[in-house]
Structure formats: structure tokens, C-alpha cells
């Protein structure tokens, strides 16, 4: 209901029939206006003159600011129920597609370090000038002990990190590769290849290998994918 229009008619002591006659329209049309339908511009102008009101008085929604369009979101290319369910070819292609930057943020990332094909791909990319940044958990840090306890694996997480560091070691000799240790509570493991990200959300009491994977592509500077990129950078610069 347009109560503003109805009140204006009452103030002017005009009936629906009076307005219909003045504007040369059917009374049903006036009743539709009173029910909420907005008149055509020519009828709005005549009504405003007749009732001595502005269009903003009678139909304020016409001048209400329109909401700004939402920025485009990151493309969700694929989802996987578990990290172990991601085909090896996806990991291989993911890192092989990088042209500028590869980023790995995890506690151990041992499953990648044990894959000689993936390690060879990352090494080849570094030789081609791609920046490679690898962030692994500090095996002596308190966060690793806490995570090991949360997953029910005790000290084995720290052992996995030490094993991974040995396997990642050959990459240290290459230009464009840097490996750092972090002592951060991770809510996600992040595997980046330029604007494509494989995100492994962590769930309490669940090993990362059993948690799901989201494959995102960043398309905007403030989309979901960009949020994870900023998170990676925060950890990197905090080490």
C-alpha cells in the first residue's frame, strides 16, 4: 500500500473517482496506484500538481540510492571431499601452470615433497624464473605440538615436517626459491599457482589429508581468493 499517496488524497479531500476524472484514467488505475503500483511519469507529474506534493513525497523509493554492484567473486573451479581425493594430475598441472609465483603454506606438505614429479615441476618452474615460496611449520614450535595433539598424532607431525624439510632441501640450491618456517595456527593450507589456489581448510580433530579441498581462481582484488592470498602473505612476512 502507498499510504503516502492515500494520505495526500485525504488531505486534498479527493476521492479515487475525483483523481480518475482529473487524470482521465479508470478508477481501477487509481486503486492500483494506492495499492503500490508506481504511475507512469506523466501521471506522476499531474498527481504532484494536483496534490501539491513532490514525487519524493509520494514515491520516495524512486530517489533512494541504488545499491552498489557486488564485486565479482572468485571462480570455484572444483571441490574435493578430501585432500587425498585430489588426483595427482591436478597437483601436477596446478604447479605446472604457474608463470609468476608458486606458494605453499602448510604444516608439513610431506605428500608433495614425496612426489618426485611435483618436486621436479617446481624445480623447473624456479629455473624458468617463477618465484617459489614455501612455508612449513617449525617442528620445534608450540603450535606444532598443539596441532599434533588436536589431530591425535602426537609427535608424528613434527617428524613429518623434518622429513619434508629433508626432501625440500634440494630446492634451496635453486635461485628464486625460499623456504621458511612458521609457528602460526593454520586455519587452511594454501597451495598457490599465480591466481589459482588449492585451499585445504583445517577441521578440528581431522588430519589435513581428510579435510576438503577448494580449487579457486582469483578474478578480483577483493574476492575470496584474494583473501587467502593476503593470509599467505601475512604468514610469510610474519616469519
From TrEMBL:
Signal peptide: none annotated. SMART domains: HTH_XRE. It comes from the Bacteria. Residues 5-58 form the HTH cro/C1-type domain. Pfam families: HTH_3 (PF01381). CDD domains: HTH_XRE. This is Helix-turn-helix domain-containing protein.
